[in-house]
Amino acid sequence: MVICLTGGTMPERLAEMLLDLWTPLIILWITLPPCIYMAPMNQSQVLMSGSPLELNRLTEEQRILNRSKRGWVWNQMFVLEEFSGPEPILVGRLHTDLDPGSKKIKYILSGDGAGTIFQINDITGDIHAIKRLDREEKAEYTLTAQAVDWETNKPLEPPSEFIIKVQDINDNAPEFLNGPYHATVPEMSILGTSVTNVTATDADDPVYGNSAKLVYSILEGQPYFSIEPETAIIKTALPNMDREAKEEYLVVIQAKDMGGHSGGLSGTTTLTVTLTDVNDNPPKFAQSLYHFSVPEDVVLGTAIGRVKANDQDIGENAQSSYDIIDGDGTALFEITSDAQAQDGIIRLRKPLDFETKKSYTLKVEAANVHIDPRFSGRGPFKDTATVKIVVEDADEPPVFSSPTYLLEVHENAALNSVIGQVTARDPDITSSPIRFSIDRHTDLERQFNINADDGKITLATPLDRELSVWHNITIIATEIRNHSQISRVPVAIKVLDVNDNAPEFASEYEAFLCENGKPGQVIQTVSAMDKDDPKNGHYFLYSLLPEMVNNPNFTIKKNEDNSLSILAKHNGFNRQKQEVYLLPIIISDSGNPPLSSTSTLTIRVCGCSSDGVVQSCNVEAYVLPIGLSMGALIAILACIILLLVIVVLFVTLRRHKNEPLIIKDDEDVRENIIRYDDEGGGEEDTEAFDIATLQNPDGINGFLPRWGLPTQWWKERNPIQTGLFSGSRITRSLHFIFFHKDTKINCITQWTT
Q1: Which helix (H) or strand (E) holds 149?
Q2: d(Cα 656, Cα 206) in Å, to the nearest integer?
Q3: Which residues form the Cadherin domain (predicted)?
């Protein structure tokens, strides 16, 4: 069998074919002319164009590699990409040594592109490429070849797989996929400063030949920048490039394949290089002298003018701070920096007065905020300028001699008396007369008047310090020649105190005197008050009326805290004799002249417990000899009436003799009486009640009588004979207990039936 494969003539392909000789039963012949036919042999042979010695050597090697498993084997074929011609290109020829030449063998091709890209002559075994191939689209194709019987289509040999490789040619130019490029580099950079790097790609085979070997160069952008031919790193080619001279550069970069040799393909891209700013320029005022004018009545903080120092740098490198470093107006003016406009704003700090000074001269300085130490040798990064400010005259409102006034007046001052005076003047050269008035919104009661010409304030209505200590009014000064020029000033008037109020008791006092009190005992402590407010504080003097200096019952004692104690001179006070005592007391202050008043203290005589606690101050408690109060007396009378009713009932029962006591009325007496059929102990039975409570209802200390609902009950003691109304004589007792507030009253009655 003879197999001929056509391919390229490159020496590399020849070496590759020689390596394939180790594959049994493969014959490779790489040549452009038609293949040479050789007689069939027991094994496949590789026939190549060349000298007879090479052919003999290959023949010997093929004999050594004799292998009889199958008639033909091959590995790979080659075809040039982008080949075009009038006829399909012959890629190779298949032939098996089983073919005797009788045309009974048919060759079949299958796999990648079989029938569409590659076509085989089933009789001769010639393989042709019928389409134009592109290695960048597909670099190799894997196919399967097989020899079958022409008539039966039975395989004569097992199928064999081989590869057709598309041989690369330099048909793709380099491309910059990420272009165009942009890069920045600081201005004033040193020579060789790296800017950026670019990358180009070539679709050709990077392994075979130099089709994808790229070399970079700069077509435009010299002499400012250079590029490394292999790494494509762009660097500065000139030192100290100045952004202020030229900020942007356009660089054209070329990438060429074939190692840059003639005939190679090339591609280009652009790189825009921008120089970034550094602070290499000082600020500079546009002019050395500035002139501004300002009215004297301008409001504080108003901008008078702007000065600007230009800086060729940009951004923060151009930021400058402004200061006033000298001049006769440093205390009146200030300068601030405008970060947006990069200029200095001159403002007024203190009021101007044309009549005092008509012009000012300032020296201002502008200095960079951010200084680069690399360029400090270029000189100071600051500049100065002179500013002249002229003050213009303006019609100013009147000016008071004081921003506020404080006046004092006694509360007993006479009407129309002068309290004080305010003064004002026109600061202008014309000096207009001033007219004064009171803002009546601050003096609604019209307590004060003012002289319109001289500003004297007088009293219009009486004052009372005890009603109002301070009066705050506003005085208005108006220019007569220009009524629109108005000024206001606050005036505070303090009302001074005079001793016009007499002292009196601080509150309504009522004293209580115990009947069992002791001589010298303090009955009550009182204090005094005075509406006046003396400078040294209050000091009161207390005394009794002259006709009561020798009062036999009471005396007074001054305490250190400016209070007064009333003391009893003796004991034995009796409510029956006199229930209430009136004690007039004279209270004097320490004013000049001193004022005094008489206050009367009411003293009541009361019954007290042994420890001095007041229990009763009513004289009706003495009506009963046993000392019962009126409330207790009423309770006892109610008890007596109830007993009389019971007696009447029992008298009625005796008339009915032995008839039982039955009360059929719905309002039964038993609703309020509890009945016990126990025999009592007679008159000598005293355990059922407390006689002492009946005799002394006020024995409970600290409580006054209080009426409540009665609790009624009766019981029979010491029974003599049991049974109710059995005919025997039974001594019965009825015990009632009344609660009048906190006093318990016992009522007992006894009878015999």
Answers
A1: strand 140-149
A2: 154
A3: 96-176, 177-285, 286-400, 401-505, 505-627
Give this prediction's pTM. Answer: 0.44
**What HEC string does 484-531 produce?**
CCEEEEEEEEEEECCCCCCCEECCCCEEEEECCCCCCCEEEEEEEECC
Burial bucket for residue 664 (CB in 10 Å: 0-12, 13-18, 19+)? exposed
Helix, strand or coil, per DSSP, at residue 736: strand
**Count of alpha carbons within 13 angstroms of residue 684, beta-carbon side:** 2
User: Which amino acid, residue 324?
Assistant: I
pLDDT, tens digit, 9 for 90 and up, residues 356-365: 899 999 999 9
Integer Cα distance of 273 and 254 in angstroms = 16
User: Per the structure block, which two tokens stand in for 292?
Assistant: 């501004």
Q: Please answer whether residues 523 and 566 qualify as being in contact, where contact means their C-beta atoms are separated by less than 8 angstroms.
A: yes
Q: Residue written as tokens 């298949």?
A: 94
Closest-CA residue to 750 (of 650, 633, 632): 650
127: β partners: 92, 120
- Bridge partners of 744, per DSSP, are 739
Strand partners, 633: none
Residue 437 token pair: 């008035």
719 has pLDDT over 80: no
Fold adopted by 504-616: Immunoglobulin-like (2.60.40)
CATH number of 76-167: 2.60.40.60
